[in-house]
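note to self — DONT lose this again. spent like an hour looking for the file last time. sequence + predicted structure for the chain T wanted, 188 res
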Amino acid sequence: MSAALQVTAFGLALLSTLFLLLATCTDCWMVNADDSLEVSHKCRGLWRECVTNMQDGVRTCDQYDSILADHPVKIVVTRTLMIMADLLAGLALATLVLGLDCITFLKEDPGVKLKMCYGAGVILCAGSILGLIGSVWYAVDVYVERAMLVSHNIFLGVHYDFGWSCWLGMAGSMGCFVASVLLTCCLY
């Protein structure tokens, strides 16, 4: 049962880490709200803003000036938290691979392999918390920004909602958390 649980946790951790990486790299953290008058689809991400013309499918993207330039707090904080979550999830995945029973590394010492799985679970938990904080921080900021515009009856032409990248970051973080629970609580 331990080997099946380890492989399940590894599969979930691998998929969740990929989700976190995709969320960090993609550019649809905010999308314009559906409006029948719109002829373009706008996405804002952590690294750039893209506009897709709905009639001919042409997509143009504007890179943000610099990583070190003055950006809104939500972008800087989310970038930092998501990059740290990606690094921790990758480290946990590497540790977990070495700790799996089906890998011949340290086969003669099962206690060390079990501790490696437990350590991978702890690292995954830390990464999942950072990723979840980053994703939720961004989503709450988008919601507050939109609510402030609506409450003041300000219409700037475009209203943004959460994009699929934000949801992907939340899903990846939750998957990493579930994998960490499997590794830390259920493996013993």
